[in-house]
Design goal:
The protein is an alpha/beta fold and 212 residues long. It has 2 domains: 74 residues, no CATH class; 114 residues, Rossmann fold, CATH 3.40.50.920. 32% of the residues lie in helices and 13% in strands. The chain contains 7 helices and 5 strands. Strands 1-3-2-4-5 form a 5-stranded mixed sheet, with helices on both faces. Helix 6 links the parallel strand 4 and strand 5. Helix 4 packs across helix 7. The chain is elongated, with a radius of gyration of 22 Å. The two termini are 39 Å apart.
Length: 212
């Protein structure tokens, strides 16, 4: 699922697709069960169901509804719990492997700016301005919003004074940063209600205050 903000959605930029040999391909595990024994959403204790090769006689049903291991709709509370819990556990068990973010100069930073979406562009300008003034400012740009990289925030909170979180809303991700920091570093929201993007000077002012 892609979460797009309006400004990013209206931008036109060059997309660079790497050569095929540089793209990691992780093949799905295919089933060795017979056609009669195969359940397309059966896990056998594994959180990722096995796939069947198309055209080899396996049958399966696809629906967007809560479903049983055959793929047929089943909206009962027990089945809902079983399915949703498995899907969540599958993601949460791999947080450190699948969380994506861009990190820059956080090693000795007094302040770390955490941003995402189009606000990251404006935040970069504020970071550059702060560094030009001699401030030790790091950057953490979130590429995936969920699962949230708690482990990275905890690691950074142990060695920085504060997180500055500019958001093109009145505060959502800042709460996640504050929660993951566990009180080891301050979290300062720089909100913006919309209609435009942040003024870099507004973010800079908060960085300067946080660094004092």
């Amino acid at each position: 699922m892609f979460m797009m903000d309006e400004v990013v959605g209206h931008m036109t930029e060059k997309v660079v697709i790497p050569p095929a040999d540089q793209i990691e391909v992780v093949p799905r595990k295919h089933t060795h069960k017979s056609v009669e024994d195969y359940l397309p959403y059966g896990t056998n204790g594994n959180m990722v169901p096995e796939m069947a090769h198309a055209g080899e006689g396996y049958k399966f049903h696809v629906t967007g509804l809560t479903h049983d291991e055959r793929g047929y709709p089943n909206m009962t509370p027990p089945m809902q719990k079983k399915l949703v819990t498995r899907l969540q556990d599958k993601i949460l068990s791999a947080v450190e492997r699948i969380s994506m973010f861009e990190e820059d100069s956080t090693e000795n930073a007094d302040v770390i700016v955490v941003s995402y979406g189009i606000t990251s562009r404006v935040a970069q300008r504020a970071i550059d301005m702060a560094r030009a003034k001699g401030l030790k400012v790091g950057k953490l740009r979130l590429i995936t919003a969920w699962p949230f990289p708690d482990f990275k925030i905890r690691e950074l909170a142990a060695r920085t004074k504060a997180f500055v979180v500019p958001e093109l809303n009145l505060g959502q991700m800042s709460r996640e940063v504050q929660r993951a920091a566990e009180g080891k570093a301050k979290t300062i929201l720089v909100p913006h209600a919309g209609g435009s993007v942040h003024n870099p000077e507004d973010i800079l002012a908060v960085i300067q205050e946080a660094a004092r």
